[in-house]
Automatic annotation (TrEMBL):
Matching SUPFAM superfamilies: Phospholipase D/nuclease, PHP14-like, PPK N-terminal domain-like
Binding-site positions, ATP: 50, 470, 566, 594
Source taxon at top rank: Bacteria
Entry comment on modification after translation: An intermediate of this reaction is the autophosphorylated ppk in which a phosphate is covalently linked to a histidine residue through a N-P bond.
Chain's role: Catalyzes the reversible transfer of the terminal phosphate of ATP to form a long-chain polyphosphate (polyP).
Provenance organism: Nocardioides aestuarii
InterPro entries per the UniProt record, alphabetical: PP_kinase, PP_kinase_C_1, PP_kinase_middle, PP_kinase_middle_dom_sf, PPK_C_dom2, PPK_N_dom, PPK_N_dom_sf
Similarity comment text for this entry: Belongs to the polyphosphate kinase 1 (PPK1) family.
Keywords linked to the UniProt accession: ATP-binding, Kinase, Magnesium, Metal-binding, Nucleotide-binding, Phosphoprotein, Transferase
Binding site for Mg(2+): 377, 407
Protein name: Polyphosphate kinase
Catalytic reaction list: [phosphate](n) + ATP = [phosphate](n+1) + ADP
CDD domains xref list: PLDc_PaPPK1_C1_like, PLDc_PaPPK1_C2_like
Residue ranges annotated for the Polyphosphate kinase C-terminal domain, each copy included: 332-498, 505-666
Length: 686
């Protein structure tokens, strides 16, 4: 079946360019006048922080391969240098569009609502006086000017820090000198001068540089920002102690090579040339933008107490199976789950009254013998961590699989791992060579009828903060087959068991790819036999060539395929003879779509899987990922209803065409608002 697919040499879109198109969709939300104003400002900040991480990891990786002489074409057919050149071009257009939107639309619109983002010259005398006092008392003591001359080499510029390039002149000798001043990250990006008026911190510092360079003439001041390669690679096979090896590598991360230089467009050619030379940056890697730089700081503006300029307030409510009845006491999650499965949809269903309550109740319940859980990312003040510590101190057996290699959360996870170990938890770091990305919790409870396992499997992290912003799905169940599978999987993760097949789970790297491909081909067989056939997949990204090729085969055979992909999509839909039966759409909005759902018509007896795995090489080959087949017809039917709404013609979304471009439809129903309203109706009984 694959021969007809392989004839299409250009069937894969480039993953890096597809990611840039995802960030373009984020920018389009900031451009949308129907989005509340402060939310538009937040989307500007999200666009900026997304792009930072893209350069730190993806662009850095491309540069590393080019430097190593790796000349392997991507699945898209592009060589690494061709991909990099395309990135420069697209990024240049997007960053210019981003800066223009901020300057020409968002700043004036904020002004119309009494929120003013101004520059130093716009401040009145009283405001300038207040800033002078702030500088003298709080900012000046923190600043460290670093000169550049034969006795002072060019200073190290930390990644993503905002800096001032300062050119000064000695009035006696007439000699000019260069210095760098780092804008302290400990202060707010925008200084509040009162009455919701804000000025960039670098303006306040720049205006008072004479105090840093007394007796010198300040000739030029330009802000700039460097992005470095901050990916971390640990040779686990050679590492005697993974924790120590990772800590050593994290220290090295700070000194990764530069991959991007952002400067204000007013920078003088001489200063720019000096920065490029000292940082070993090429002209392609320089982005000249109107100030201010680093608009990630707009999160602070979006957090202002102006609720009329934000999405209408939304408070998650307890799932109907877990709602408190006739008592002020919290619901008994064990009794609720024993009666029937609890299928959760966050943030619409409260995380605190479901997953968090599940772990907290297990920690306090004297009948609970053991708790086993995976942790990939968690919040700074984590109630989940506190509950696990309480459980261990109460004498329960607690096993925690902490993934200390979770990108950009390594330091936090090392800290959690040590805290859990000190409390008496059994802490392991998973399997050598693999990241443990699955979202699993199992509680073993001694009950009158014997030992019972309560299991939670989800698509999102055990993070109480992101659970209010990320859309995720999870299930709490006492299904015996699922409990048996999860128990074996935890044994795999903590010991030397290598069970590779499960009854109700697909587990990467052993069976997620092959299991999905098998079910995709199963839909082809159902169609050929005249039975109902359809495939629906919801994920963050789809890149894996084997899965994509299987979907192409299904399309060629006439199976309808619908994909809801938030981010990267390397599949090319709507290509004659290849993918006419495939629809790809993307939904972005107030919540970050994060759940992974795999739904198959299965000849009229539908199956639905949920879990942690995206269809990317890293997920399928280099991570421990889990998909669980949802038990019970009612759970599968609920997934159908969710997907029906997401793929409805009237639901607002971006649609992908055969050329790899996304176009927004005219749908009048916003998925997140519709689900909020559905939850409200369920809660009020309307």
């Amino acid at each position: 079946m694959l021969e007809a697919v392989a004839k299409h040499d250009d069937r894969f879109l480039d993953r890096e360019i597809s990611w840039l198109h995802f960030n373009q969709r984020v920018l389009e939300l900031a451009e949308d006048p129907r989005v509340p104003l402060l939310e538009r400002a937040r989307f500007l900040a999200i666009f900026a922080s997304n792009l930072d991480e893209f350069f730190m990891v993806r662009v850095a990786g491309l540069k590393r391969r080019i430097a190593a002489g790796v000349a392997v074409r991507a699945a898209s057919g592009l060589m690494p240098r061709e991909v990099l050149e395309a990135i420069w071009a697209e990024t240049g257009e997007l960053t210019a569009r981003h800066a223009a939107l901020f300057r020409d639309e968002i700043v004036p619109a904020l002004l119309d609502h009494g929120i003013q983002l101004v520059r130093w010259d716009d401040l009145d005398k009283d405001e300038q006086k207040a800033c002078k006092k702030l500088f003298k008392e709080r900012i000046f003591p923190v600043l460290t000017p670093l000169a550049v001359d034969p006795a002072h080499p060019f200073p190290y510029i930390s990644g993503l820090s905002l800096n001032l390039a300062v050119l000064v002149r000695n009035p006696k000798s007439g000699k000019e000198h260069f210095a760098r001043v780092k804008v302290p990250p400990t202060f707010s990006r925008f200084v509040n001068v009162g009455n919701q008026r804000f000025v960039p911190m670098e303006d306040v510092i720049g205006e008072h540089l004479r105090r840093l360079f007394p007796g010198m003439e300040v000739l030029e001041v330009h802000s700039f920002r460097v992005t470095r390669n901050e990916d971390v690679e640990v040779e686990e096979d050679d590492a005697e102690n993974l924790l120590a090896a990772l800590e050593k590598e994290l220290l090295r991360r700070r000194f990764g090579p530069p991959v991007r230089l952002e400067v204000e467009e007013t920078i003088s050619p001489a200063v720019l040339e000096l920065l490029m030379s000292e940082l070993d940056i090429s002209s392609d890697e320089v982005f000249q933008l109107p100030g201010p730089l680093d608009l990630t700081g707009l999160h602070d503006i979006a957090d202002l107490n102006r609720e009329e300029l934000k999405f209408q307030a939304f408070i998650p409510s307890a799932h109907s199976h877990l709602a408190e009845v006739e008592s002020a006491a919290p619901v008994d999650v064990f009794k609720a789950a024993a009666r029937r499965d609890v299928l959760l949809h966050h943030p619409y269903d409260s995380f605190a009254t479901s997953v968090q309550r599940f772990i907290e109740q297990a920690a306090a319940d004297p009948h609970v013998l053991a708790i086993k859980q995976t942790l990939y990312r968690t919040s700074g003040d984590s109630p989940i961590i506190d509950a696990l510590i309480d459980a261990a101190e109460a004498g329960k057996q607690v096993l925690v699989i902490v993934e200390i290699k979770a990108r950009f959360d390594e330091q936090a996870n090392i800290r959690w791992a040590r805290k859990l170990e000190q409390a008496g938890c059994h802490v392991v770091y998973g399997l050598v060579g693999l990241k443990t990305h699955c979202k699993l919790a199992m509680v073993v409870r001694d009950e009158p009828d014997g030992i019972r396992r309560y299991v939670h499997i989800g698509t999102g992290n055990y993070n109480s903060k992101t659970a209010r912003l990320y859309e995720d799905i999870g299930i709490i169940t006492v299904d015996e087959a699922i409990g048996e599978d999860v128990a074996h999987l935890f044994n795999n993760l903590s010991g030397y068991s290598r069970k590779a097949s499960y009854e109700q789970l697909l587990v990467a790297p052993d069976s997620v790819r092959s299991g999905l491909v098998e079910q995709i081909y199963g839909e082809v067989e159902h169609l050929r036999a005249g039975r109902p056939a359809r495939i629906r997949i919801k994920a963050n990204s789809i890149v894996d060539e084997q899965v994509i090729d299987a979907l192409y085969v299904a399309s060629q055979e006439g199976v309808p395929v619908q994909l809801l992909i938030r981010g990267i999509c390397a599949l090319r839909p709507g290509v004659p003879g290849l993918s006419e039966n495939i629809e790809v759409r993307s939904v972005l909005g107030r919540f970050l779509e994060h759940s992974r759902v795999f739904w198959f018509e299965n000849g009229g007896e539908p199956r639905a899987w949920i879990g942690s795995a995206d269809m990317m090489h890293r997920n399928l080959d280099r991570r421990v990922e889990v998909l669980v087949k949802l038990p019970g017809e009612s759970n599968v039917a609920e997934m159908r209803r969710l997907l029906d709404l997401a793929f409805a013609d009237d639901t607002s979304a971006w649609l992908l065409d055969a050329d790899g471009r996304w176009h927004r439809n005219e749908g009048g129903t916003h998925l997140h608002e519709a689900l909020i309203e559905r939850q409200r109706r369920r809660r009020t009984g309307l």
